[in-house]
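Page 47, continued from p. 46.
Same chain as before, 466 aa.
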Amino acid sequence: MRRWSSALLGLSTTWLGAGASWAAGPTQVLEGVGPERKAPMVRLGVGFDQDYQQSRITRETTLDQGSGPVPTEVQELDHQFVRRRLLVDGRVGLYRRFELRLLAPIVLEQDSQIRFSDGVAGRSTIFGSPNADDPTFSTRFPITTVPQDRSRAGFGDLEVGLAWAPVSNDDRPTWPTVRLAAMVTLPTGEKWDPADIRALPSTDGTGGPGLGLYVFDLSVALSKRAFLGVPTLDPYFEIGTRLPVATGDMADLGLDPAFSGRVRMGTELVFARDRKRDTFYGIDVGISFRYIGSGRTRSQLTDYLPDFDQTQVDADVFEYGDFADPSNYSRSAEGVSCVVDPDTGDPRTPGVPCGEFTRVEDHVRFDGHVGFRIQPQKNFAFTAGVQVGFANDHFITGEAAGTDLDPPDAGTCNGAPCSGRVNRVNSRGVDERSPYFDPRYDAPGGRFRAEDILNVGFFVRAIGRF
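Result:
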């Protein structure tokens, strides 16, 4: 889920403050104590942002075209996600152009939902039709009830870090401004557990929004004003990476987050600026590209898929009834069922909540943004912006069945060569199967894919300088 909003967050946080440094937004660093200053600059900001995503979810399947089964993809679900946050942030210049940054997010609302796409309900391979529930087909057991909703809120994950501008356009007009930054996201928010039943609309509470990650964000940005007068252009370029590490309890649930890399470029269009009065009026226009690697992480279906554990099944071949047995799932919660019979309302998996991390394929996200910064006097500034983008189509399930640990000369297991396949009991008596693999939606031919992904976000912020 964090990969959907990080670009907008990065845009908004780098726009804090105008003041002594006239560099473009992503390269601005506050001045601290130095030969010309006896007190550090301090900026405090309060803002609001909203992230929205919609996507279409398709599924691999086989259809009989008259001449026999043909592999294809069929449309299944529409997914929507919205998150609204209050952002409180601060920046303090420590020494010269070396500053401390802090961002505290409060998640006011974080909702998601899945619905059948138009015309799908009567022929879904997921729920509520013979295509999803065929006892003669061992893995054709309903996956999850549709429609479903989830809701989360609460204090988010605190971000803290340092920024330094070793070279500045302010010192010499012919120089560029170079900014180095290192930020760390701390897992301060209540953990976003996919199986937390408090996120269900039928409960009185809400689930936690915290990602359960330490995220190390490293970036380098460069900007260079076209000339000193106004109007002028102040183009910038930034390159960065995010390296997430799951906390121990989230790693135990299977979270294996992916790294990401980004490139952002754009320019501030400076319309008016008065150095003596410390005023500024400008517009920022830019684009960003982000590569997100493969990982077992949050996806559009994380909150809605059951956590079937194939290692609980003491057989080499799955049967239809294995998916109806609550003891074959990793987690339990009284009074819930991930699948409910659409005709009778009876639970098909009593005591089994929905929710597990899924294997998400690597993909690329592209965004464009437009924003403005108004600073009518030196102690106050106002910023706002909007961002629109998309991500390429990619699989959001596809966990490997396990890992073959047998050497080539291992002999036979259950009447077949041990090497070259995943065994329930290998040549050393070890179960090679992954506890996170669900043959219903991880095996090729049944995987889910996110398509037509649209991301829209905006933010507003008021900033005071002291």
